[in-house]
Fold this protein.
Amino acid sequence: MTYEPVIGLEIHVELLTATKLFCGCLTGFGAQPNSQCCPVCLGLPGALPVLNRRAVEFAVMAGLALGCRIHTRSKFDRKNYFYPDLPKAYQISQFDLPFCVDGAVSFELDGGPSEAGITRVHLEEEAGKSVHSGDSILGSTYSSIDYNRSGIPLIEIVTEPDLRSPEAAKAFLEQLRTTLQYTGVSDCKMQEGSLRCDANVSLRPVGQEPFGTKVEVKNMNSFRAVERALAYEIHRQTGVLTGGDTVSQETRAWDEARGVTVSMRSKEESHDYRYFPEPDLMPVTMEAPWIEGLRARLPELPLARKRRFCRDFSLSHDEAYQLTQSRETADFFEAAAALHPSPKAVSNWINGELARLLNEAGVAITVSPVTPEMLSKLLDYVKAGTISSTAAKDVLEDMFVTKRSAELVIKEKGLEQISDSDAIGSVVQAIIEAHPEEAAAFRAGKDKVLGFFVGQVMREMRGKANPQVVNELLRQKLRN
Amino acid sequence: MNLQTTSAVELQRLLNDGSLSSRELVDRCAERISDQEPSIGAFLTLSLDTAKAEAAASDERRRRGALLSPWDGIPVAVKDNICTRGLRTTCGSRMLERFVPPYDAAVVERLRTAGLPVLGKTNLDEFAMGSSTENSALQRTCNPRDTQRVPGGSSGGSAAAVAAGESPWALGSDTGGSIRQPAAFCGVVGIKPTYGTVSRYGLVAYASSLDQIGTFGRRVRDAASLLQLIAGHDARDSTSLPAETLQLGSDDPSVRGLRVGLPLEYLEHGLNAEIHQAVMDAVRRLEEAGAVVQELRLPLTDYAVETYYLIATAEASSNLARYDGVRYGYRAEADDSRGMFEMSRTEGFGDEVKRRIMLGTYALSAGYYDAYYKKAQQIRTMMRREYESAFEQVDVLLTPTSPTTAFAFGDKSTPLDMYLQDIFTVTSNLVGIPAVSLPCGEDSHKLPIGLQIMGPHFSEARLVETAEWLERQRNGGDSHDL
C-alpha cells in the first residue's frame, strides 16, 4: 500500500519589540545572562503583567500578512506547566480566542503554486533559557537559567494539516520566514532561536480521507533539519504500517547527529495545561479602523512583489523570485533599476556578482559598500560600451573594497574600452599583414580562424578594444 | 488621653497643633507593641528603628512646613503579603520565611510618599488562606478582646494590631472577607473597596480576580482616610481602575432617604440570635432617622461559598505554582532537582495551602473544567447581575459581617466549618463591589459583633457616610475614646 504524508507545522517566532511582552525589560540578544530582568519577568511574588501594545500590533501585523481574520475581542489565558525556566510556572498565552485565525500562505513548490492554511496566530511570552551541565535537567549535576529571554514576545503560528511532503514543509517555511521578515515583526533567525518549528506528521493510505495517528516532532534547529526529520519520520511510520503495526501517538525528538527521531513522551504522559483566563489582564478589544491602520502599514509582500517584478521589469520567474526572497535585496534592486535602463542587467548583477561578493564578505545588502547608485553607474558604462563585461567584474570587486565610484576605478585602471575604428583599424591591419597564411585560410572559408585574429588584436590592445568593433573590422579587412 | 486608642483623625490634630510629635507617637506605638506583643502576636516583623527615623524625618518636614500629606507622620502596620523593599515579606509561610522583596508594593510606595512610617508586617493565614490566622506557619495571633480566641483572618494581625492599640491603622487584603471578618472579630472598622480601586502591584497573589487591598481603622473616618491615601490608578496593575479621586467622608453624615436593603438570605439559616439582634438594632436606628428599609431576596447567595472556593482555589493553584525553591524562598535538600522541587513544596507549604492548591488544580483539570471552574464563573456572572438589579432598588445592603463572633482556637476543626465563616463576605469579592464592616454591638461574652454594609461599584462614599452615621449613633460623638 502507498501512504500519503499529512504534515502540519507549529512555528514560534520572537517579535522584534524593544521591550518584553509584559514589562519594560530590553529584549536584545546576547546580553550578559540575567541582566535584562525585573520582578515581572522573574515572576517574583506580587509582580503583575502589563501588556506591551507594540507586541499586539506586531502579532496582528503578522496575522494580516498571513491572510488571517482578526478577532476584535480577544483575551489572554494562563497555560500552566512546571519547569524551572518558566518563572511563574504558567505561560501567559492565548487559548480559545487567539488574535488571528483562518489565514493562508501561498508558496512555490517544484515551480508550481501551492498553499497551506493558517489555523491561528496567537501571542504569548517566552520562557527563560536553561543550560544544563549534562544532557538534560535530570542527568545534570547543576543547571543554570538565563531569564533574559523570559517574557520576550512570541507568536505561535499553527498551520492546517495541508503539507504533503518534507519539501513542501521546507518551501512553506521559507515563504513564511520571508513574509514575516518583510513585515519587520521578526528577524526569524533559527540559529538564534527567534524562529522555531515543531511538526505534526501522520500517514494515510492514498485516497483515504481520515487522517492517521499523528506524531509530534520537536527539536529541529534548521529548515534542513525539518526536512530531514520529516523524511525520516515518514520513512519510520511507513515501516511501522507496512509491518502491520500501528503508529502510536507520541512526541518525538529529532536527533540531528544520528539522523533519527527518538520518543520523548507518549500521549498518556502529555501535559494537562489547565488553561483559564488570565485574571491579571483585561480582555483585548481592537477596533476595525485600528486593524485597518495596521494593514495599511504592511509592506508589499514577497509574492505580490515577485509578480510585479515579472510584469513591470520583464524578469523571469526565477530572477524575480531570487530578488524578492529578501525585502532588502528587492529594495536594492528597485533602487538600482530606477536608475539604469536594463532591469535584466541589474538583476543579473545583483543575483550574480554582487551576491557573491556580499556572501564572501559576510556583509548584508543593506550595508553593501556598493550602493544601488554606484551599481547603476557601472552598468551604464557597460551598456555604453565604455568597458567590457569582463572588465566590469574587476571594477565591481575594486568598488566593493574601496567604495570608490565606477568612473574613478575605470580611469585609474585604464579600462576604458577602445571603440574608435581608426585606432583599432590600424592594429587589425598590422595583425593581418603579420599572419598571411591564416588570412588566406579565412578567405578560403575557414571562419574559425577569425577567433585567432580577435585574440591577437585583443592581446595587442591589452583587452581594451571593443570586441564588436574588432570583429567587424577584421571581417571587413580580411575580405578585402 | 490614651494615645493608643485615639483615632488617626485625632492624632492628626495633635500633630498639627504641636502637642505631639511623630517621633513621640512612634515611640508610644513601640512601647505599646513591646507591652502587647507577648500576649497578642500581631506582628511577624517589626521595623521600629526605621519607623523612628522616618518619624523624625516627618517631624523635620513639619518644622520646615513641607509635609508630604495631611497624614504625614502617622505610623501604619502592613499585612505581610504586601511587598516591602528590604523588609522580609513572608505571607505567613515557611516558603517565604526569609524572602526579602527587592521592590515596594504600589501601596507601600504611596505610604512612603505620604510620609507614613511603617511599624512592621502583620501576621496572616498562610498566603491569606483562612479565616482565623491559625493557618500562619510562623506565629499565633490572639484576639485583643479575648486572647483565648482567634482574631479572625486572614488579616488577623492587622486587625489585632489596630484593636490592641499597637498601630493607629493598618493595611490588609481581602479576597473573601479577609479584612471585614477580622475587623468584626476584633471590634474595629475594615473597608474592602471596589475591585480595582487599589493597585495590587506588590500584593502577593492568592486569587487575582478577588484580591483587593483595603484598610483597618479604629474609626470609620480613619479607615476611609487611609483608603483614600492608597487608592488610585497604577499603570503596573492592568486591573487598576482609571484615575478618579475617591471622595470619602462627610462632616455631617446623613441617612435620610437612604434606601437600605436587608437580604433575607443573610439573616436566615439559624443565624446567631445576638448577631441578628445587633443587625436589627442598626436597622431600627436607620429607619428612625429616615432611611427606607426593605427586605429583599438574593437567592444566588446560597451558592456564594461554593462559587468562591472554586474560583479562588483555581487561581491559587496557578498563582502558587511558582514557589519551587529555584529562585527564592524555601529550598529543600534532595538528591536531584525534581526531588528538590517536590520537597520544597511539600515542606514549604502548610496543609490548608496544599488543600486549596489541590482543589484548584482539580477544578481546572481537563474533563472537570466545564463542570467546576466554568460553571462557577457563570454563576459569578449571574450573581453580578443579581446584585446590580438589587442596587436598582436599594442604595446599600445591610448584613452581618460574620455568622459568629470570635471563636476559640481550634474551634473550627474541619475545613468546611472554617469555609462557612466566609458566607456573608465572599459575595462582594465575587461581584467586585465595596463593603465596610463596623462594630455594631457585643454579644453576651462581650465579643464585638460586625455589621457589613455593601453597595454598588464605586459607592465607597455612600458606604462610609452610612457607616460613619451608625458609628456616631453608637458612640454618641466622634471624639469618644474607645
The radius of gyration of chain B is 21 Å. Chain B touches chain A at residues 82-83, 89, 91, 96, 99, 101-103, 105, 200-205, 207-209, 235-239, 314-315, 317-318, 321-322, 324, 326-328, 336-338, 341, 361, 364-366, 369, 373 (CB under 8 Å). The longest strand of chain B covers residues 435-442. Chain B has one domain: 1-482.
